[in-house]
Amino acid sequence: MPKQPDQRRELSAFLRSRRERITPGEVGLPQTGRRRTPGLRREELALLAGISATWYTYLEQGRDIRASDQVLDALASALRLDRYERGHLFQLAGHAPAAEAEEQEPLAAEVAAVPLLIQPHPAYIIGGNYDVLSYNQAADELFPQLTAAADRPANLARWVFLEPAARDVLVDWEPEARGLLARLRTLAGRHPGDPRYTRLIDELNAGSPEVRDWWPRYDVQARRGGRKRLRRPGRGTIDYAYTAFHLAEQPEQTLVIYSDEPESVG
Hints:
Order of helices and strands: HHHHHHHEEHHHHHHEEE
Domain HTH cro/C1-type: 14-86
CATH class of the largest domain: Alpha Beta
Radius of gyration: 19 Å
Mean pLDDT: 86
Number of domains: 2
Helix content: 40-55%
CATH topology of the largest domain: Beta-Lactamase
Pfam families: HTH_31 (PF13560), MLTR_LBD (PF17765)
Low-confidence stretches: 98-102
Strand order of the largest sheet: 2-1-5-4-3
Protein name: Helix-turn-helix transcriptional regulator
InterPro entries: Cro/C1-type_HTH, Lambda_DNA-bd_dom_sf, MLTR_LBD
């Protein structure tokens, strides 16, 4: 059901008020330069929530757009809303109360800020089902279209198999895709019946002939560091080393950091 203009204005004011009450220091961001307004900038909040800065700006401006339950959950977590504020957010957005919404994998705000601190090195945090829970600008540029969807969180597995740009970026697409699918199967096996995994796997099977061929083979693999060859516009092929760090409190959540080797440019 479309939101009415008054409801959109109230949602806009609520989001802005909650964004302005959070200081950069509270979420582990450096305080750089003077700020015209208190609290976080829109683009900082969008990065913490793992959504497009442009799309979040539209939402806060009161434009007539619809946010998914997952996006609202991500915003509520980034804004550190309590359960009453979270329910109010969902009601203003025209959804059922947050308690009835599908839960998203939780990520502490101070943890979500880590990729921003690692800039300019590409970095992101992924959940067990490969949802991109946090990322920095360098990662957004390295993996084009990964965070473009406005109505749901970015997902690395969805990008690799369903986004055409992935086949241009990943020089060794097939072995990279096979490895990712094997790691997804390993993690999905720990959560039988979990809709976060079953819906993603159904979507990948529906959209990718490779997944339909490879999934029944039951390949499994653990997450680890390694190397990737990635194409960069204007820079050719670059050999990246990447390191994976598992979070102590949430071991299925993984911080991945990339560093390039300039001598490998070709």
